[in-house]
Amino acid sequence: MTSTTAELETLLAATAAGDRAAFRSLYGATSAKLYAIVLRICREPGLAQDALQETYLKVWTRAERFRAEEGNPNSWLAAIARNTAIDAVRRRTDVALGMDEEGRSVIEGMAMATEGADIADVHALRHCLSGLDERQRDCVVLAYCWGSSREELAERFDRPVGTIKTWLHRGLASLKACLGAAA
Amino acid sequence: MTDEQRALAGEFVLGTLGSAEREEAERLFRSNPDFAAEVRMWRRRLDPLNAGVAPVTPPPELWARIEARMGGTASASAAAPSGNVVELRRKVGIWRTATIAVTALAAALAFTLFLGPQLRGTTPEQYVAVLDSPEGPTSIVVEVNAATGVVTAYSVAAIAPPDRSLELWYIGDGQAPLALGLLDAVGARIEIATANIPNFSPSGAIFAVTDEPRGGSPTGDPTGPVVLAGGLVRAM
Fold first, then answer.
1. CA distance A171 to A56
2. Which residue from B minimizes the CA distance to A151?
3. Which of A21, A92, B124, B194 is the most buried (most CB within 10 A)?
4. What is the number of CB-based contacts under 8 A between chain A and chain B?
């Protein structure tokens, strides 16, 4: 997103006050990024557009919560978009389970595209993900980027769901320890 | 916070929880500050994974779909001033009250200094609005020549902040703001025929300048704060 954090915070505050023009500006500044995030999870434009519509309606009605929940506007908006997209995918039982991308390619992509993210944060995450056990890393990245459920990961890696859960927990714990050291 | 809760916070952000665990996580997010901090940490820390995805512009009709479900229709929102517009009117109202004593004087002065020479010898109906902030000096002067039907705005001292634009708005009595153009640098000038301003009337008219993204408001309505404002007064 090309808008600064401060600009997005201003737009969110005005949106919380019911300012439609500010909300329109917020949509203009963030929709292409959020659509891409949602599209990656939904994999199908129709479903992604429904999820994006729902995302912005949530933002419109919940903008006043942003300040209370603190956080960065980009990650707050991305969290709403991801949750909405994951819900949309989970509701659809017929959605294809196949992954068309590997976790590794996302990590490589992070080195190329850093728009909207703090460079130091990108480097830290890239470094720490690279240091994870390969399967743990793939589970974390596939879940975050493609909205994979534990069941989908279990199928993909041909392991019981309990094992996937353990991988996720270990992966997250190692990641946190590494990121804490990098901070 | 327990290790289990820590794992729950991480998986909550990843999106891998089942519905029961997710409800538990949402409950903790609202009630347990440590848990909420852990969730925010993961959101921020994993956000760079979103940086690797190239933006995709959604189809243009999507905004209309969203707006249609926001409560009220798009046409209703165009007719009814937005919250920002209401706020703009309110601010202008306060400024008018605060500066009413000096406005007439400033208008006369501005007229003499900036507009007088070119108009000397004519006796048309003239109106002037001096746009200033409560603290700052006169920055923009708007002149309306009723005889020729021309509105002219000059930037005397206003300069747009870096990468921003100063947009001039006409706000007729009881009307929504109408964008007249940008005044980004000292010496900038806008000329517009009153015929091009729907229902133009000098009576009760307000001119305001808002701080907008470079190139002006993307929406057609003011989106940024009011930096200058003033009411139109009879000059001579």
1. 32
2. B16
3. A21
4. 179
Give how many domains chain B has, as a whole number.
Answer: 2
> What pLDDT does B206 receive?
85
Are B52 and B82 within one domain? Answer: no
CATH code, A5-91: 1.10.1740.10
Q: Distances from the Cα of B209 to the Cαs of A160, B100, B171, in angstroms?
A: 63, 18, 11
Do residue B44 and residue A121 have CB atoms under 8 angstroms apart?
Answer: yes
3-state secondary structure (DSSP) of residue B55: coil
Contact B14 A140 (CB under 8 A): yes
Query: At B21, which amino acid appears?
Result: E
Any chain A CB within 8 A of the CB of B32? no
| CATH number for the domain whose boundaries are A103-182 | 1.10.10.10
pLDDT at B95: 44
Beta strands in A101-180 (DSSP E): none
Whole-number pLDDT of residue A56: 94
In this structure, the answer to whether residues B181 and B87 fall within a common structural domain is: yes
Q: Answer whether A170's CB lies under 8 Å from A133's CB.
A: yes
- Among B47, B59, B219, select the one facing A74 at the smallest CB separation: B47
pLDDT in tens, B199-229: 888 887 888 888 888 888 888 888 887 788 8
What is the distance between the alpha carbons of residues A88 and A37, in angstroms, rounded to a whole number? Answer: 13
From the CA of B89, how many Å to the nearest CA of chain A?
14
Of all residues in chain B, the percent with pLDDT exceeding 90 is: 17
Mean local confidence (pLDDT), A143-148: 89
Q: Model ipTM?
A: 0.84
CA A46/CA A26 separation, integer angstroms: 22
**DSSP states of A66-117 as a string?**
HHHH-S-HHHHHHHHHHHHHHHHHHH-TTS-----S-HHHHHHHHHH--TTS
The distance of B149 to chain A (nearest Cα, Å) reads 31
Using the predicted structure, report yes or no on whether residue B65 has a pLDDT greater than 90.
no
